[in-house]
Amino acid sequence: MTEAENLSTNYSDDDLTFFAMVYKNYEATATCLKDLRKQYPSSHVILRSDGDQDPRFPLLASGHRVDFHGEARLFGIENGGAVIERMLELFLKRPTRYLLKIDPDTVIHRRFKYLPVRSGLFGTLQCEVDTPSVQGGCMGFSRDSADQILKSRMLRDVRLKEPAKFINDSPYFFRMADRANRCGLASFDWILPWVAGELGIPLFRFDEVNCGWQQPPPNPEGRYAVSHPRARSK
Question: Is the pTM of this model over 0.85?
Answer without folding.
Answer: yes
